[in-house]
Amino acid sequence: MFSPEGPRLRELAVQALSSVERGYDLLAPKFDHTPFRTPGSVLDATAGALRRLGPFDTGLDLCCGTGAGVDVLAQVCRRSVTGVDFSAGMLAVARERTRPGGPPAGHVRADARALPFGPAFDLVVSFGAFGHFLPRELPELFAQVHRVLRPGGRFAFPVGAPSRPGSLVYWKLLGFDTVMRVRNAVWRPPFVMYYRTLRFGGLRHELDRAGFRVELHPLPGFGQRPDGSPRARLVVARRPEE
């Protein structure tokens, strides 16, 4: 599951018994060697889809972690890109990434539910972060994204089709979520990270409520399900022009 450069079992145990912020501070130096990092195939497919929608001037990677999403933004934004995360450890790794060419990149430590920006961005992206937010937190999260986008700006993130009930992936995700629920029931502070809490229907409903106009763009490189629907899509939520 982990490469030789990844964290050991004892390190993961310490991280899992920490707060979300502290856990990611500890995991940061080895995060890119874990399966928790968004796969390169997803990042590349997202960049390709955004090129067809852009170019953009300024971009923000929401919950940027070690900066892989900032690299995506650097391919489609002309003026500047910014990563925001509340883990100082993850930001420290992100700042060390080498990005030859491309627009200037900045990194800001902040909570995604209280972004310290005005309407300064044409594009906001996020990769694999929504599991850290409970469903009741989505309205404020999406309201923050809406607020920092310029009119006409877009909020984009990839989503995969739900795993088939009874499949190996289904049981793995269910097992992970069950372990996390038990952990949070008996241990404080909580570590919010669930794979099956947020459904696509709930995400879209909250995007609509926040004032976005939502489009779905298939990511064809991941193939189709037996019913012909794509296995992965890019959700593009646009803040309407005022």
Name the descriptors.
8 helices, single chain, Rossmann fold, alpha/beta, 242 residues, 2 domains, seven-stranded mixed β-sheet, 7 strands
Structure description:
The protein has 242 residues and is α/β, with parallel strands linked by helices. It is 36% helix and 21% strand. It folds into two domains: 1-37, no CATH class; 38-162 and 199-238, 3-Layer(aba) Sandwich (Rossmann fold). The protein has eight helices and seven strands, in the order H-H-H-E-H-E-H-E-E-H-E-H-H-E-E. The longest helix is centred in the C-terminal third of the chain and has 19 residues, at 168-186. The relative contact order is 0.14.
What's the CATH topology name of the largest domain?
Rossmann fold
CATH class of the largest domain: Alpha Beta
- Which percent range describes the beta-strand content? 15-25%
Spatially, the strands of the biggest sheet line up as 3-2-1-4-5-7-6
**Chain oligomer state:** single chain
The total domain count is 2
Q: Tell me, what's the shape?
A: globular
Instruction: Give the number of DSSP strands.
Output: 7
Gyration radius, rounded? 18 Å
CATH architecture of the largest domain: 3-Layer(aba) Sandwich
Global structural class? alpha/beta
- Biggest pleated-sheet summary: 7 strands, mixed
N-to-C CA distance: 48 Å
Say which CATH homologous superfamily of the largest domain is assigned: Vaccinia Virus protein VP39
Roughly how much helix do the residues carry, as a percent range? 25-40%
Protein name: Class I SAM-dependent methyltransferase
Pfam family, one: Methyltransf_25
GO molecular function: methyltransferase activity
Keywords: Methyltransferase, Transferase
